[in-house]
Amino acid sequence: MRPPVTPRERSTPEPTPARGGANAPGSVPETASQSSSPSSSESSSPAPAPVTDLSDLPPAWSGRRALAWPAVPLSVALALWAYAVRHTDVSRLDDYGLVSALHPAFWAGLAVLTTGFWFTVRDARRPGAWSAAYVLGLLVMERATQAVLYPTPLYAWAWKHEAVIDHLLTAGGLQTADQVGDMAVYDQWPGFFAAQAALQRLLGVDSAVMFMAWWPLASSLMLLLPLLLIYRTFTEDRRLIWTAVWLFYVANWVGQDYFSPQSVAYALHVGVLAVVLRRFGRSAVRGGRPRQAVWTVVITVMIVAIVISHQLTPGMLVVCLLGLCLSRRHRDRIPVVTTVMIFLAWCLTAALPFLSAAMPDMIRSIGDVGANVETGYGATPTGTGAIATSWAARLLSGSVLLLAAVGVLRQRVLRHRARPLLLVAAAPLPMFAASSYGSEMIFRVLLFMLPGAAFFAAAALLPTVRTLAAEAAAPEAGGRRTTSAGGRWGLGVWVPPVALLGGTLAFVPAYSGKDRINYFPPQEVALVRQLFDQAPGGSLVVAANRNYPDAYASYWSVDHYWFLDDGRSHVDEIVRSPAATLARDMAGVEQPARAYFLLTQGQMANSEMNGQLDEAQLNRIQKSVAASPRFRLVAENSAGWLYVLRQSGGAER
What we know:
Layout: H1 7-11, H2 32-35, H3 38-41, H4 64-68, H5 71-86, H6 98-101, H7 104-121, H8 128-149, H9 156-171, H10 177-180, H11 184-188, H12 191-203, H13 215-234, H14 238-251, H15 261-279, H16 282-287, H17 289-307, H18 312-324, H19 334-347, H20 352-365, H21 369-373, H22 384-410, H23 412-417, H24 419-426, H25 441-461, H26 468-476, H27 491-512, H28 515-518, H29 522-534, E1 540-543, E2 559-562, H30 568-576, H31 578-586, E3 595-600, H32 601-609, H33 615-627, E4 631-637, E5 640-645
């Protein structure tokens, strides 16, 4: 750390050389004031314009006090978080999910953490380790809270992926659609599942359930290094770098960090962009072809891992790399050509069976933007809590994108120097016209825009920063130092930290507001496992929807039917005459296989909050089945009911 600059030193400033040379990716071009001699700085020329990219100002205070004070709010925030999780009861979640269940100490801790981060990161001379510590504290409060509070992993999709791993270990290899039906799509993109199966054996655990609750925290940590590398490519201002990282994590509410192939594929996607932005383009020419060959091998390995693990991420990577080619600094075609060749090779071989069947629908969806972004039946937030959660997420994303637009307009230097990152942020937008991706394309586009959007949003929050040479002109002009356009206590001082705090608090409802749907209590897990422990091969499980734990357990030997996936006319028929209609639908199962009807807490929450059947209709279905002589109750607890269809002409088990 440089010692504080005295007034005498500041009256005759010397130019500060940029690290890495004038043309290095992270270097800062010399301003007119920096390149001039001391005599020229004493001339009557006007003071140079503020530079908004690299702070060269002395710290507001120094010594042990300056080094130690960030530990106070950080420690207080984590202590409040620890107290909150010990006094939060998740046994009865309402339609606001975790938001209404959290102890008030959690919100106080998050506010203290955000405030401490803001005042810590604004001092450009403070060691970056403090900013990193605050970001890690944010990840703990954001991504570890659910793992600590809930005794079982969240998300039905995470449980589904655990079943795919179990199938891979059981079958000992990949299988086709003739063997496992629609689930064969996971065998055509097996990278994540094969890696998890190997990890499971390495750790000696029976199931990925043992660690998948902590996956959101782990996958978020995977993103930290590539994000830092990307942002350091365009600035050395630690305030801008760490504020952008903070905003990225705050705005990443989409929920793709759970135990899934896309969580790893997305981290690899950001990693590829980091390597391409730093090691390809003009810098690669200066570095020489041998060094570029090494980095080509590195990104090739990451691209292969992406392509064999996830369907959408390779396409997003291609459009981002094509966007980079619009910049003169990154017209190196090696990354995009490598990605396209690997992607096409996989699509034309291992993934060809799925793509051949899905291609007609994919072609029809091209250009139909309205259909690609609409949610449709079964995905429409219903009820006060669900609607409030949906609006919190929309406002959070809209605010970050609006701040990004302000940052682009306000920070002229960054608009020029970080243009490649701006292109990367805009590149996913055409994907709206490509596919609906199961009504999730709007969320995925937002996710892939986020690294660039967070950077420019952070630039909008930071004040205008002067270089050392420009700051030296302040005493000569009267000794007054301007802090912002609004004065020391004006809007320009308070709006940015308030905006950062508002976004940080809004993350909680956006990310955890649907935990009534996503959380399965131990009683529900026990009920479902009792079903699959006794179901013979060839059995049929009928449920309202697939939102329950282990919904895909033994999918290679047990069939599933979720009646809310049917056409609305058949759903209405089930509502009018539940027991008779369900018995007719389940009658085709032959002994020794059985037909089971399962209704659980998770199914009811998902149906109610997503605009399908309401609580009264689902309760009517359950009571009709319970009163019918065609069904026999097998098990029930506080989380649901399990019935079996009585079979004629055979012994009842």
